[in-house]
Amino acid sequence: MSLCDAEKTFILHGVKENFRVDGRDREGYRPIELETNIVQHAFGSARLRLANTDVLVAVKLEIDVPFPERPFEGKLEFFVDCSANATPDFEGRGGETLAAELANILTSAYRSPQTFNLKKLCILKGRKCWKICVDILILECGGNLFDAVSLAVKAALHNSQIPLIKSINIDGDNIELNVSDSVFDCEKLDVANAPVMVTVCKIGDQCIVDPSLAEEQCSVGSVVVAISQEYFSTVTSIGKGSLHPRTMCNSLELGQKVGIRLNKAFMETLHNIQPDEDVGFLK
Amino acid sequence: MPIDHKRINGPEESVPYELFARLSGITSEKTFEETQSANIRTDGRKFDEQRKIFLKNGVVSQAKGSAYMEMGQTKVMVSVFDPREIPNRSDYSLKGEIYCEFKFAPFSCPKRRLHQQDNEEKQYSSIMKKALESTVCLHELPNFQVDIYALVLHNDGSALSAAINAAGVALAEAGVPIYDIVASVTVGVQQGINFLDPTLSEEQMCQTQLTTEKFPNPNHAVVIISKLPMQQQLCQFHQTGYMSLDQLKSALELLTKTCETIVPLVQKCLLSLVTNSIKP
Amino acid sequence: MSRKKELLSKVGLRLDGRRADELRRIRCKLGVFTQPDGSAYIEQGLTKVLAAVYGPHQVRSKQKAQHDTCIINTQFSMAVFSTNERKKRPRGDRKSTELSMHLQQALLAVIKTELYPWSQIDVYVEVLHADGGIYPACVNAATLAIIDAGIPIKEYVCACTASLGNNDVPMLDVSHQEEVIGGPTLTVAALPMSGKIVLMEMSQRFHLDHLPKVLDKALEGCKDIKAILDEAVKKHIQDIGSSTGWANTTS
């Protein structure tokens, strides 16, 4: 999307007066729609729509061997696929840089054991563990991709159910795992500390949250902040441009404030979600 | 991971022997306890003291500009090549581009690295690119791409910082138009203590969560920033771990202060470059 | 080991409880996304497919531009989580390239390409859940998306699969389970109103004598699918046109 100078000036003035192009204030989010349990045969899934940014996340589980230097921990992997539905530029391998950036930020955000406890995924020390593969599909890109992806991942992990292992037979080197047959015999993951990302963009002299596509083009510097229960799980500067250290501090404060508010509202929604008849994309 | 057919790799199940040595009791926890009780780091530094830096340019004759930097035991070599037309692109672009490649040599880390870039190296490449993009005058290189290659010969912590610093010097030597020199520093945080310019073991300690009964402070992180000192601009910021806002602010303050100390070294290096080229 | 299941039981019911000539439930929606020029979502049984159309717009690489027709560029992609076993790569493998080409072939037959010289139409299809009959679902979704984009077409192109059960009875709309067991699958993409066949593909084998009746069954299925898609399109036009009132003229 290319903007002319007049459009950029218009956006700049709007941000200065705390009245953006779509009527929001600097800290306002666009409407978010969340639906879980969309992909039936995945262990957990969620679809999140933030205005016209559309992200679909599915969680699959595999049994794997843990890393030798961390025998008590399971694995958590992120895979991002930018579908060509979002923009023709993503055709073939066009979306790979963006996909790699998203996957890397998510990996940094979930690295600390405080945010996600990998020890719960261990089945047999050093021999077997659960590997959670989180697959993210970007269907439409309307700005603020990082926030949408992080929220969708959190919802999908909240929705996931890990089957319980009833028994383990160890016969020399052969290990047989007996997974419970019942569909209801499973445990949920604890996502209270899972990080929520907030993109803070500096436009002119002010910082805004949840930029639309046009606003992203006008920003002189952006920071993505991942907040987990008031703590910063990862902070990365993205896009082209540099920031003064004081602006950086202001952005971090704003990001934290908004992140805590967003997380609270999100967790409330997640707890109140009713399993409805599947609507998916038909609504 | 793509299979490497050109080299004879060891069996896939092989594991570095240090893992078994670790079982004899040296853990991150112990290292931190010792450090905390002695109030001095394992290599004798204070908490906010940097390691000795060695910086030399013109080390790679084939490259247009190159630099070799040592921060303590960490050794990094960066080379910058002539701008060339952006490959695989048919349309004309008004602004130039940077291509950064960051690689750990297979022998540089305690665990052998593969010859292909893995995800961590790709992430470091993009962080390095972000840091250098703000300083190169891309509008003066329309349709051109500047290649920057960083190779870590010995990783003992802060490798990415060293690479970014060396890249700044290499860019200056290559004559690529830049706004300002780049200064980059890393800090590790554990239990509220800022470990400036951490060694590899300190970095690993700052990435782990120590048991919470003995050490109640949940802050642990590694923060790396790059700054354009004259412009007072942070061109790159990356933190990973778990930190509170106050801890992050104090780390940021320490880092911005430390970036100023690198400036005289870089200036001395560039000055010697100019005087040597003038002398007959 | 389970004993070999029959495709058609003695009572005439298939593995999922359908009769031999019953289609799976089809639900579809046009205009799912705002960014693409046209988009559609279709569910055939458990198979879910999203299609997006961009265009007509300027050709990206000047060498490919043609002076008298429009280029149709298709991409078929399956989400990593769409199959039971997690796929490593969403696209780029041989099967995806082949299906992209087949999709392009089907669409070239109906899109009025002579109206847009020097242009390109991009059709992107994403499979969210694969449960048999993914190619027909893609073709149907692409048709709907093209209609939503407002690109003129000669008529609907619909696709359907058919199989042969108990060596005798032709069955319509094969699911993944029936494909895997080993039943032969005939995929047909056709123009239902004029009765022309655009693409025909088959896996496994059966005797040539059975071909006419299986083919007829598949073409019948295409006609039925066309009726369903047509209804969906009319409903969509009513929904979006009701604000301006022009939907009331179509009765």
TrEMBL record, chain A:
GO terms for molecular function: mRNA 3'-UTR AU-rich region binding. It is found in: Cytoplasm; Nucleus, Nucleolus. SUPFAM superfamilies: Ribonuclease PH domain 2-like, Ribosomal protein S5 domain 2-like. Residues 29-163, 194-257 form the Exoribonuclease phosphorolytic domain. This is Ribosomal RNA-processing protein 42. GO terms for biological process: exonucleolytic trimming to generate mature 3'-end of 5.8S rRNA from tricistronic rRNA transcript (SSU-rRNA, 5.8S rRNA, LSU-rRNA); nuclear mRNA surveillance; nuclear polyadenylation-dependent rRNA catabolic process; rRNA catabolic process; TRAMP-dependent tRNA surveillance pathway; U1 snRNA 3'-end processing; U4 snRNA 3'-end processing; U5 snRNA 3'-end processing. The keyword Chloroplast does not apply.
From TrEMBL, chain B:
Residues 49-177 form the Exoribonuclease phosphorolytic domain. It is found in: Cytoplasm; Nucleus. PANTHER family: EXOSOME COMPLEX COMPONENT, EXOSOME COMPLEX COMPONENT MTR3. One of its GO terms (molecular function) is RNA binding. Keywords: Cytoplasm, Exosome, Nucleus, RNA-binding, rRNA processing. It comes from the Eukaryota. SUPFAM superfamilies: Ribonuclease PH domain 2-like, Ribosomal protein S5 domain 2-like. This is Exoribonuclease phosphorolytic domain-containing protein. One of its GO terms (cellular component) is cytoplasmic exosome (RNase complex). Signal peptide: none annotated. One of its GO terms (biological process) is rRNA catabolic process. Belongs to the RNase PH family.
Automatic annotation (TrEMBL), chain C:
The keyword Metal-binding does not apply. InterPro entries: ExoRNase_PH_dom1, ExoRNase_PH_dom2, ExoRNase_PH_dom2_sf, PNPase/RNase_PH_dom_sf, Ribosomal_Su5_D2-typ_SF, RNase_PH. Residues 22-152, 156-221 form the Exoribonuclease phosphorolytic domain. Its main location: cytoplasm. One of its GO terms (biological process) is U4 snRNA 3'-end processing. It is found in: Cytoplasm; Nucleus, Nucleolus. Component of the RNA exosome complex. Non-catalytic component of the RNA exosome complex which has 3'->5' exoribonuclease activity and participates in a multitude of cellular RNA processing and degradation events. This is Putative exosome complex component RRP41. It comes from Rhynchophorus ferrugineus (Red palm weevil).
